[in-house]
Amino acid sequence: MDEKRAVGETADYWTRRIQFSGKSSYIISLPKRWVEEMKLRAGSELSIIRYGHKALIITQRDEVPKQSKYKAVVETSNKDHPQSLIRRIISAYLLGYSIIEVRAKEVGFDLRRKEAVKETVRKSLIGVEVVDESSNHITLQVFLGVPELNVENALRRMFLIAASMHKDALNALTKLDYEAADDVIRVDDEVDRFSLYTIRQLKLAVSDSRFLEKIGLEAPKDCLGYRVIVKSVERIADHAVRIAQNVLQLQHEFKPEILNQLNKLGDLAVSFVEKSSQALFKRDYDAAEKLILEAEVVDDVVKELLKVIDAESSKEQTYIARLIVEDIKRAAEYATDIAEIVLNLTADKILFHSHSK
Prior knowledge:
Blueprint: E1 19-21, E2 25-27, H1 32-37, E3 46-51, E4 55-60, E5 71-76, H2 82-94, E6 99-104, H3 111-124, E7 128-133, E8 137-142, H4 151-175, H5 178-207, H6 212-215, H7 222-249, H8 256-281, H9 285-294, H10 298-312, H11 315-346
Parallel strand pairs: 5-6
Antiparallel strand pairs: 1-2, 3-4, 6-8, 7-8
Helix pairs in contact: 2-3, 4-5, 4-7, 4-8, 5-7, 7-11, 8-9, 8-10, 8-11, 9-11, 10-11
């Protein structure tokens, strides 16, 4: 069969017909030029790796990608700031290492560093446990691969928590409830935990396509879109925290008219967050596009609200109210950004495909 060179300077493209051999095998021939370039011969072993749902990768046996990295060693000195150590541990986690060993350069960890490591494991890293410990080292093991916590389920949890945080922050604002505001700030750790977990899974899928199906995605190209969505949901939660922090600065309730308008805008933003998640998990192009059109009203609602704030509140309250408006608006914008990513992820469903011969 003739070999065909694809349009382009460097790409090689061949077509092959599948042939039936024996009673149960299908075979295709390999391009002669590729076999010679790889220095292969009859009897050489190749590995065939499934890539997404519709492709296979043929590689030399010794070039098969490993499932995940095994061990990372993080050295720390008592002179280092604890947060520097924490950042390195999180980096190793995100890079896909199964074992993270923290070693002290000097003799013995100081208590502050040990507690910082254990607090990070407890609050920020899903699936990580301290499995060994001495005066000079702490060994962390990542027990991941939990089937019920794939990327979609972790992201669903993030959406639910972020939307709930905004509702609770608005409720704390309406009632001037400082305790409820503190609760919103504390819950943000949960969003961060799921965010780090999901980013780790996406990084593993990018480096090894066999991991895609395990985390619930269809194609490698989806990983980038999901990575941006994770960051957007994290930002939505951050804005809920900022609203709660501003509630803690208030000494008096806003006037009812201002509260009503703030809640109206807040409810709109929360509805956008919920609709963007529904469009994502249903892979619904039309729903995402509808949300983007609906979001055009946000600027008008904000303008009217700012007029009411300027007219009805004190100088101190005006400043805080404007900050809260900005945080609610940003949450709505991030929800819209998510909807735009859903359009990109689902565009194939609404496009007509043609195949030229």
